[in-house]
Write the structure tokens for this entry.
Amino acid sequence: MARFGMVIDTRKCVGCMDCVVACQTENDVPVGYARDWITTEVRGEFPNLAMEIRSERCNHCDNPPCVTCCPTGASHVSDFGRIVKVNASRCIGCKACVAACPYGARYVHPKGYADKCTFCDHRVKEGKDPACVSVCPTHCMVFGDLDDPAAEVSRLLRTRKWHTLLPEAGTKPRVFYLT
Ligand code: SF4
Ligand code: SF4
Ligand code: SF4
């Protein structure tokens, strides 16, 4: 079974927001909500400062608190690539998962269920890249099976420096940022 993840090169990301627009269009994300967003962070200390621009989304954590806290089983780890998903028909909109996610990756859809990035599994099942990956003009995002040593995501993690967001939270994110 695959274990999908995403590797994003912060040296290539220009913050154009094409990924955000593509996601909203592909996934019918309601106006005013988002499954992905751009964060700008200044790293280092003066005078050695560097600005990191990141395209952020659900990290599809290996240890997801949003799943363990869900009282109905609506939030779950999918058999397809261990993607963290929400079964809308089982969700009661209690927001426990929204509170449990340290990344702010979830919102409650106006229709009453929790929503977030799905890694575009409907596209991946058809052999396509996620929408955000496919439109990026700088090709800064790579999607693939982290458990496949021959996959580009694995090669990049072996050969480049990277970090994850809030590793101290113990969630074991599967979105990696190359530095
Ligand atoms: Fe859950 Fe948040 Fe991790 Fe996504 S980023 S799997 S919503 S804890
Ligand atoms: Fe589970 Fe839905 Fe409550 Fe989230 S909002 S914890 S998915 S029932
Ligand atoms: Fe949106 Fe799909 Fe990218 Fe997730 S993988 S941020 S759902 S476009």
